[in-house]
Model the fold of this input.
Amino acid sequence: MILLVDNSNTRTKFMLLPGEGIEEGELRIIPTADLTSENILDVVKEHTLTGAVVASVVPRTANLLKEVLQVLCPVCLLHAQTAGLPIKYDYPGVATLGADRVANIVAVSQYYPLPCVAVDAGTAITFDVVVPTTDHKTCYVGGAIAPGMNTMLASLNQQTSLLPHIQMDSPAPSIGKNTCEAIQSGVHWGVCGLVERVLQQIEVALGSKPYVVVTGGDAEKIASSASKIDAVDELLTFRGLQRVANLCL
Done:
């Protein structure tokens, strides 16, 4: 049994894989703020692990996950310079590249046509650009980072006296008829416009339209209103982590 862990700022997702089919995995989710040694062990207590791959953007919980899991099996704590990754980098800041973005880069390199942009829509919205090379490998050339929908909603509430904190639970109106609807409209259409504009600039820089795949908690919301999205893949990060497990464990 292989364990794949996507440790983000908001949620930590555990995927237990009994075989090669990622869709057949068992998914467990724990709020990152609530992670403890006990509930990490509770996720895997009924399974014998042969290895684990952890992609973390939270150093405190990355260390906790590694300490708990390495007692049970070999652990790969993913980073951009992990040995064995089939990726070249045209990116001087490679040491600062988040592990979740590395997993997405590995996934699109394996499963989607290149050039490709992986858009991960969560607490932040990340854009990662992968292109083919002349030696039939893949190269990461950079990307962009913007605030996600929930980050925008929280910021409006925290930085103003009267604007409430709301949820994006329903389709956003084009014209809000009250304060809550106005916030939903501004955030939803603002984020979708942001995504479209960033992708347009990437297309100009590349000289051709890349294939665009979106993942993350707000993937469906963005894909429903952004015309440049070609595919939604809610398992993209886990596909990358599975590929890392096959290469590095």
